[in-house]
Specification:
This protein has about 325 residues and is of the alpha/beta class. Helices cover about 35% and strands about 20% of the residues. The protein is built from nine helices and 14 strands. The longest helix has 22 residues, at about 95-115. The chain binds nicotinamide-adenine-dinucleotide.
């Protein structure tokens, strides 16, 4: 995939990662057709893109409406639209099935109909489940997700691989660590900032002290790694882990948020969590991704998890959200 002077479709373009990706693709001289139903995304995230002649926004529900009609001339699809909320899994099993599996099938079918040959797909570290090997490499197996979200994303990976082989497509699968930064709307940072704005003396934290231990990557580095991996190409399918080289536990995240908000003597109230201390059912305890494959194509993260988190907190506080 060249991703220069190409026509690229971004589904979920008004979301956190999709809007940053749209900006990045426009900067690199591509024409972008952005698709979103605005169920979670926000038009304000597309402010820069909308001022660009090479951007076109299409409001469309990928579950219920026909995508092929707007796919003419597209070279590559970045299919970012999904229900990304792991916690919703046990409460509403249908949502993940519809929004992840059925919607991905709809996108692949539209691509097949229009002869579109490139797809880039945001999968997740949660496809590894509770991995026995840490850092976990892309060829780790068997893949046994512990959340409905992870299970549906792994199903999407399998469907995309089968379409790529059957219909001569090129597919890049990104297995993201936790991505943080401006325009994010639903993660631990927002939860902490919101609670501390309400009561700066104490912080309720889901789980048992010191909480899960996971790798975090800043959105700027995530977009740069996504473009690098796509440009490295696939014959016909490649999976890439995208994360940083280390981990941060929940106590460490709380300490960063408290410090960045200029607070002192905040009492941490741990809820104790579920299933031996994780925040919610399906929450992975320990996650660090092997980055040798990214390194082999010349890409490495510059920020560690704490620095990514610190930058993200500053951006979120500055945005006023
Ligand atoms: N944020 C992370 O840390 C992370 C980690 C791993 C994987 N991912 C994946 O990356 C992708 C983007 O995640 P995000 O954090 O930016 O989420 P997000 O919720 O901010 O973005 C998803 C976008 O898709 C849109 N959308 C949802 N259903 C749609 C539908 N039926 N039709 C059209 N648009 C629809 C939403 O309105 C939203 O703008 C998702 O596929 C997610 O699973 C994210």
């Amino acid at each position: 995939m060249k991703l220069r002077n190409e026509t690229v479709m971004v589904t979920g373009c008004a979301g956190f990662i999709g809007s940053h990706l749209t900006d990045g693709l426009l900067r690199e001289g591509n024409e972008v057709i952005g698709v979103d139903d605005l169920s979670a995304g926000k038009m304000e995230f597309l402010k820069d893109a909308l001022s660009h002649d090479d951007f076109r926004f299409v409001r469309l529900d990928l579950l219920r409406e026909e995508l092929a009609d707007v796919m003419d001339g597209v070279d590559v699809v970045f299919h970012m639209a999904a229900n990304p909320d792991v916690r919703q899994g046990p409460k509403n099993t249908r949502t993940h099935f519809d929004q992840n599996i059925t919607v991905t099938f709809n996108v692949l079918e539209a691509m097949r109909e229009k002869g579109v040959k490139g797809i880039c797909f945001p999968s997740t570290s949660t496809v590894y489940g509770e991995a026995a090997v840490i850092p976990t490499p892309e060829n780790y197996g068997p893949l046994m997700p512990i959340s409905i979200y992870g299970g549906t994303k792994l199903s999407c990976e399998a469907m995309i691989s089968s379409y790529a082989h059957t219909f001569e497509m090129e597919a890049i699968l990104y297995r993201f660590a936790n991505v943080v930064g401006s325009r994010s709307t639903h993660n631990v940072l927002h939860d902490f900032v919101r609670k501390l704005r309400q009561d700066p003396t104490k912080l309720e934290i889901l789980g048992a002290d010191p909480g899960t231990n996971k790798s975090y990557i800043h959105i700027s580095e995530c977009i740069s790694a996504m473009l690098a991996a796509a440009r490295a190409g696939a014959r016909p399918v490649e999976a890439y882990n995208i994360g940083s080289y280390d981990r941060l536990n929940v106590r460490g995240i709380a300490d960063i948020v408290v410090a960045e908000m200029g607070l002192k003597n905040v009492r941490y109230d741990w809820t104790g969590g579920v299933r031996g201390g994780v925040g919610w059912v399906g929450d992975v305890r320990d996650m660090l991704l092997g980055l040798d494959k990214l390194k082999s194509i010349g890409w490495e993260p510059k920020l560690n998890s704490a620095a990514s988190m610190q930058r993200a907190v500053r951006e979120i506080l500055a945005s006023g959200h």
